Amino acid sequence: MSSAEALSTLVPEGAVETPCAYSIGRRLSLLLAIQTVIGLGVLLAVIYGATTMLFSAKHDEELRSYSTVLVDVAREADAHGGEAEVRTKMAWIAERRPGTFVQLLRADGSEFYRDAVTTFDVTKASSRGMDFTVPLSGGEVLQGRLVLDCSQDAKTARRMALLLVGAVLAGAALVGWGTFWRVRCSLRPLLDLAGQTKAIDARRMGQRLSLAEPVEELQPLIDQFNGLMHRVERTYAQLEGFNADVAHELRTPLANLIGHTEVALSRERSVPELEETLHSNLEELHRMAAIVNDMLFLAQADRGVKARRGAPASLAELVRQVVEFHEAPMEERGLSVAIEGDAQLSVDEPLVKRALSNLLGNAIRYADQGSALRVRIASEPGSGVRLWVENTGPSIESEHLPRLFDRFFRADAARCEVEKPHHGLGLSIVAAIARMHDGFPMAESSAGITRVGFTLQATA
């Protein structure tokens, strides 16, 4: 089996390989240790170079001063005793200056004087030399060579280099360890946050992240996470309520279906009685289908589906078409309707008509007998349109207005009609259609006047 085949057997197809995690503390420690090595290395290299330059300057000064002494001594000895005296003086000085080597040559290259005993190897790299001239009486000039033993200073420099290298390594190790320790202490709030996050579950949705000592860099993350948890908690509560409401709404028609069917099967029924049972069951099935279809529509709207806008249309004309559809229930309750204003806007006509139908049906349901309805259309700043339906009837409590567009919400169950029950998704659909047109729903109620509507925004 090849290595590729072996790897394919270990990694499932379509799986994403997670990159290996790294330690922030170890990485920072390593980076700072390397930075310390480079910084201290450059600094101590400069110090070492300056020290060796000082040693070199000291050696040059010693060679110049000693060569001057040798020239003066040689000239004075030549003046008093000739060449023999010069050799004697040179030997006498050599005995008192160990660590030096002196050699004098005549102009023809023959040796005039050479130190008899040398305490060091004059050919070593640690030795430093200088040439000088010694003028004698009679016009003869000697060529001198002075060599200085610098082995002690070279040894000192080597020891200093080792000490500096050790200081660099020790400093890097100390900085690395100190950084790792400080990073671990500094990252402790993150570990605390991780522990708090781990403790959050469905039973403790209200728990929020916090630190005993606020950290400036972490506070935005904490605030964003707490805001996210607030939204998740609210959504979770809405989802639980939605599931309960759906179960409640579907339970009634299902119970009716089961009851009617059981009654029909309890004894023999005539064909008309069975037909009546089937018609009743069909009404309940239509009601269940309507609930399911509305739930599917709201689910699509929640996923961010946008309205399919057509050519600009007259909103007043769309309102008239919806009013014609509701003429029968309006005549039954003796209601009249007035349309005020108009606007041309590119909208999804079927969706807008559906929202208007829900608003008008809601107003008809709760309007006072024989009152007048008003549908108002007004332009909004920024190429938007506000559209609302106004009816006269019982006011809605102010605490119920924010929840008026929630799914299955009813401000007062006693206001629901028994003969024509509705499942409480009409205004939720209105809000969804408004969002699909980049608008928002709105509602206000006071002094027996209730206005419910929504805004529509023009396309960019």
Largest sheet: 5 strands, mixed
Span of the ends, CA to CA: 59 Å
Structural class: alpha+beta
Count the domains.
3
Work out the radius of gyration.
Answer: 51 Å
CATH architecture of the largest domain: 2-Layer Sandwich
User: How much helical structure, as a percent, in the residues?
Assistant: 55-70%
Topology pattern, helix = H, strand = E? HHEEEEHHHHEHHEEHEEHEE
Average of pLDDT: 82
Biggest sheet strand order reads: 6-8-9-11-10
Global outline: rod-shaped
The number of E-state strands comes to 11
Alpha plus pi helix count: 10
CATH topology of the largest domain: Beta-Lactamase
**What are the segments in which pLDDT stays under 50 over at least 5 consecutive residues?**
1-11, 413-421
The CATH class of the largest domain is identified as Alpha Beta
Beta strand %? 15-25%
Description of the structure:
With 460 residues, this protein is of the alpha+beta class. It folds into three domains: 24-178, Beta-Lactamase (2-Layer Sandwich), CATH 3.30.450; 210-305, Helix Hairpins (Orthogonal Bundle); 307-457, Histidine kinase-like ATPase, C-terminal domain (Heat Shock Protein 90, 2-Layer Sandwich), CATH 3.30.565.10. The chain is built from ten helices and eleven strands. It has helices spanning 3-10, 24-96, 151-186, 188-199, 219-266, 271-302, 315-325, 327-333, 349-366, 426-436; strands at 100-105, 111-114, 127-135, 141-149, 312-314, 336-340, 344-346, 372-380, 384-392, 441-446, 449-457. The strands form three sheets. A five-stranded mixed beta sheet has the order 6-8-9-11-10. Strands 2-1-4-3 form a four-stranded antiparallel beta sheet, with helices on one face. The relative contact order is 0.06.
